[in-house]
């Protein structure tokens, strides 16, 4: 069943190998979440062990929850605010320089719509990819199989059910492209575009 899961096929989670992977993730994430918040060095060591990759200069503010950990890769200089839920049954790929606001959910699992297989506990998952320099505002939910293009901003509280292209601002439930990011968005170091994003991610 673990091989079926890794291949993206329907699988049953009642499998000793999957259970062992889940227990490992729960143990490591528990240590991250109960660590002295000022002990950044130990937190980085634990996150590097937990995740498939954890880039240089990246930070995750606990609490942090994941299914497996090793299926999530995070690039360099990423900032993740409090309470990220990352259900990484399928790969979750987060690029460089990404900003993730509080209470964001990255959800790869899927379940059959047909009631019989769902009752029998079959499930699957589809990967999520977050491009470089994306900003996810607070409370954003990203659904299975979604790719978000580089530089794109997703407004707070949005639910992303389909792919978003690069260089756009998207808001709503389901998230829709509001506009393209252009020269009018260029601001100096004293300005931000928080209003367009629908909220502050950090």
From TrEMBL:
Region span, Disordered: 183-202
Keyword line: Repeat, Transferase
Coiled coil regions, renumbered to chain: none
Annotated SUPFAM superfamilies: Trimeric LpxA-like enzymes
Domain Maltose/galactoside acetyltransferase: 2-56
Family from the record: Belongs to the transferase hexapeptide repeat family.
Protein name: Sugar O-acetyltransferase
Organism: Oerskovia merdavium
């Amino acid at each position: 069943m673990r091989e079926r899961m890794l291949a993206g096929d329907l699988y049953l989670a009642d499998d000793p190998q999957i259970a062992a992977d889940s227990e490992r993730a729960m143990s490591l994430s528990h240590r991250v979440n109960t660590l002295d918040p000022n002990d950044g060095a130990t937190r980085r060591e634990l996150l590097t062990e937990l995740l498939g990759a954890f880039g240089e200069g990246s930070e995750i503010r606990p609490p942090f929850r994941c299914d497996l950990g090793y299926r999530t890769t995070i690039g360099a200089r990423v900032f993740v605010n409090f309470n990220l839920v990352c259900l990484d049954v399928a790969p979750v790929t987060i690029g460089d320089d990404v900003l993730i606001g509080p209470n964001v959910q990255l959800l790869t699992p899927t379940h059959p719509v047909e009631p019989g297989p769902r009752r029998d506990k079959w499930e699957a998952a589809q990967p999520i990819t977050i491009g470089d320099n994306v900003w996810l505002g607070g409370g954003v939910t990203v659904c299975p199989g979604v790719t978000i293009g580089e530089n794109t901003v997703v407004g707070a509280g949005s639910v992303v059910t389909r792919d978003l292209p690069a260089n756009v601002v998207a808001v709503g439930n389901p998230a829709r492209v509001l506009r393209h990011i252009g020269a009018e968005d260029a601001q100096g170091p004293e300005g931000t575009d928080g209003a367009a994003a629908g909220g502050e991610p950090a």
